[in-house]
Amino acid sequence: MSGVGGLGNKNYNNAMSCCGLHPFRALGNWLLPRKKKGAKVTPEGNPLPKAVHASVPASRTVGRRVIIVGDVHGCLEDLQMLLEAIARQDDIVIITGGHHGQGPRRLRGETIDFAARSGIMTVRGNHDDRGVRIWREWKNEGVAPPDRGDFAWVRQVDAAHEDYLVNIPFTIRLEAYGVVVVHGGLLPGVPLAEQDMRTVYTIRDVAPRHPPPFGLFSWARERRVLREAVQSGQIHVPPAYQLEALERPGEAKENTRPWAGQYVGPDHVIFGHASSRSLQLEPFATGIDTACVAGGYLSACILPALDADGQAIPDYQPLPPYMYQQSVRLFDGEGVLARLCMQPSLQPGDALDKAKGEAVGKAELAAAHAA
């Protein structure tokens, strides 16, 4: 494959320039720099990217679809196969972080090279931030990266991609859709600009931050309070209803829930990171990490192109029959109708049967909900 949607590398600079993009500055051109007050480095000690929270203006997406791809983790052949099958030349492609490491050894360094050359945007995952630290230590202090394991890809990073690598944002917000792309997730009850950077790329579960004053904690009541806060425009919730972010299910807490099930806006979040849960279809959050690196699926969420008035343009492009496909309406059934597709992984592993069963089952539930 010569580039995203067949875009050749030779013509890439000219094509991207006409859209206001550049292979190494694609993120910087579209950013609203909202760095968290007080934070001077990332959780791994790296300099902050040009924008912690990037934003793609509505004007940049008029007439163009947005394809959001789940965690790739070095499975370059899977990514190329997926884009060859579903992407068009003018599509905007975003990866939910974790775009290198853990995959086939010979391809790990090539994945970030392909993403940078093809103008693919990505958000920062926990593996990505650590990889940047290891790469900077190698460049600045002469500390050699490991020659095996999850971070061997650092040895293969082209120095020409430094700007791309160090400026990967933690979130990307698509203004026209009201959609936020993130690796791990968002802590309910906290505005986007105030989200903790480590939480954004590690969160999987939430737990009550404070013991309930009377009786048992009610998750249903928590959701009602969160919804009322979002509807009022405040987003913040009283201390008794504040939640704590957890990376591992049940981590040091008994009363925990997946964060996505408690999240109620204001944006719709599309995220990765939680491959053990396969496809996650919640009213205001969609998880698309379906364990490609372990032999599951490489999944993508296709947002329809919008016209200048924000209306969806019908998309009749057929998808290959070997892909599982499902339409899901975002924002609890009130937003755009997105297309989910799940491509069987080319990687060996025992996750395929489990991921297939969970993904298809959840897709069927989503179809019933959309109907």
From TrEMBL:
Q: Which InterPro entries match?
A: Ap4A_hydrolase (IPR050126), Calcineurin-like_PHP (IPR004843), Metallo-depent_PP-like (IPR029052)
Q: Give the GO terms filed under biological process for this record.
A: polyphosphate catabolic process
One CC-aspect GO term:
cytoplasm
Annotated ranges, domain Calcineurin-like phosphoesterase: 65-273
Pfam families, per the entry: Metallophos (PF00149)
Q: Name one GO molecular function term.
A: phosphatase activity
The name this protein goes by in its record: Calcineurin-like phosphoesterase domain-containing protein
Q: Which organism is it from?
A: Prototheca wickerhamii
Its organism's taxonomic lineage begins at: Eukaryota, Viridiplantae, Chlorophyta, core chlorophytes, Trebouxiophyceae
